[in-house]
Each structure stands twice: as C-alpha cells, then as structure tokens.
Specification:
There is one protein chain. The chain has 140 residues and is mainly alpha-helical. It has one domain (3-108). Helix content is 24%, strand content 3%. The chain has four helices and two strands. It has helices at residues 3-17, 32-35, 93-101, 119-124; strands spanning 44-45, 51-52. A two-stranded antiparallel ribbon has the order 1-2. The protein is flat and about 60 Å long.
C-alpha cells in the first residue's frame, strides 16, 4: 500500500472513530437560519489531505507539521481549513451570542478602555514611515 493510500485510510478511520457528528460536545447550537447551506456536519478530509473537524488539528499532511521558513502561510487560507460547525472560534462569547441567540456584534472601533491606541499610529504613520523612535523588524 502506498503512503498516500495508507494516510487516507488512517484519516478515514479517524473520521469514523469520531462517531455521530450530531453528538459532538464541541458544536454550538446554531439557530436554524445559520444551519441552511452551511456544509457538512461530520469531519472531512480537505484538498490537502488534512482531517478537518476532528478537534485535534493534527494531521501528518498538515502544513503545520511540515512548516519551514519557506512555507507560505496562505497555504492554510480558505474555507477548506475551517469546519462549518466545529471551528473552535464558534465557542467564543461573541460568536455564541450571534449564532445561538441572534445577537449581532456591537459595532465600533477596537479601543483600549482608557486610550485611543490607534490615534498616534494613524497620524505618525500616514506618510508610510514608522513612528519616530519605534524599532522596526529591519532594525532588530
């Protein structure tokens, strides 16, 4: 058996071992309007051969397990890397409010409770140069 077939067989066994996707303790209770057309409930193997939805985020084929300084991080961008029901980000308070209760996120600029943290940067960085006195990656 080739390595690729062996890996696929192991991943298929991993998915089967996860059991009924309806019983997943990590999945939130999506309102019906967020379930329509969402995608598969069960774990799946993406185009890169990585199991998505197993809560381990650890497949031998994952770029995370083969990372070098030459790896382009965009190889892990896109919907194929996010499970439509089991992404860990759904469990945040803001996402649970939205997807389970229908409460939209509060609009507004991200701010420190006491300081406008973006004000200095927006003024000093308007010309494209780093603010005076700030060390850049090139200088460190």
């Amino acid at each position: 058996m080739t390595d690729k077939k062996k890996d696929f067989k192991e991943q298929a066994e991993t998915i089967k071992a996860l059991g009924d996707p309806e019983l997943d303790p990590f999945e939130i209770e999506f309102l019906p309007r967020f379930q329509e057309g969402r995608g598969p409930r069960g774990a799946f193997i993406n185009d890169s051969g990585v199991v998505i939805g197993d809560h381990d985020y650890d497949s031998p084929q994952s770029p995370l397990n083969q990372w070098t300084e030459d790896t382009d991080p965009t190889v892990m961008a896109g919907d194929e890397w996010v499970h439509p029901y089991k992404d860990i980000g759904f469990r945040t308070e803001e996402n649970r409010d939205y997807f389970e209760r229908g409460i939209s996120p509060k609009a507004g600029v991200f701010m420190h409770p006491f300081n406008d943290v973006a004000y200095e940067d927006s003024l000093e960085n308007a010309d494209g140069e780093p603010p005076e006195g700030r060390v850049t990656d090139d200088e460190s």
